[in-house]
Please model this.
Amino acid sequence: MNLNLSERILKHKAGNGKSKTISIVLLVLLIISSYIFFFSSQLIFGKNYDYEASLPGMEMALDSSHKIKLVRSDIDDDKNLLEYEFEFTNTNYDSSDEYKININSVNKKGKITSLKHNVVCSDSDLYVIRVQPPKKWTAISISVSISNDDMKLKSDKFYSDRNSLYSTVIKDESSREYFLKLDTKRNIEAIEKDIEQIVNDNISLELKIAEIDNSIKSLKEKMTYMTSDELKSAETELQKLKHDKNSFKTQIDSNKKEIKELRDNIGILESKL
Model:
């Protein structure tokens, strides 16, 4: 009986030893995987996810002859679909380039997911891809790499969050002509926003001129009762007000010319649609 009890105690201790060993192995694996995740996430999204969202028009130079420009970054919320358009520039016409794109997403918990993408249009000056992200994501990282016979692989990253994406309906189109017209429409939209901003600037300048006119009128009325010393100070202030008014009027005239030029540009773009 005592022998059986001793055997059971030994077996129990052996079992505990194995459990402890397994627990230690699992803990080590957990720590290693955490470090791998931490450092890989830093490589993809930066330390503390301190990336800066890339906006359309952003251009990156891989070297003196290769540039990558983000033309569009769209989101279709209903389809949970993203569409990106890039323009690749190579001023070294003697070489043939090969482009490679890697896309990752990250969610609020820090989980990084590697995403597949479809190349919709693959012209060098008009390169369009579509990607289906997870339903819950906070940021997208797009690594664009380039290589050819003359140089080693070089790459740069573009980042997106929901606020940086253009909300639209992404159509099942793949023709170069469609994307060229879409880009033209976006350019028109951007110019119209610029015009709206300049018009608002002119309204603000007109209000400032009105305030200056009131100040000039009030100052001239007060100057009737001023001493000679006070008049000198008031005259200096009066000249400053007139100078500011003329500066604002000059700015308004310049803005009106710019508005006309922008509207002419819209006319040229609309003729291409």
Remarks:
- The CA atoms of residues 189 and 266 lie 9 Å apart.
- The radius of gyration is 32 Å.
- The chain is about 50% helix and 25% strand.
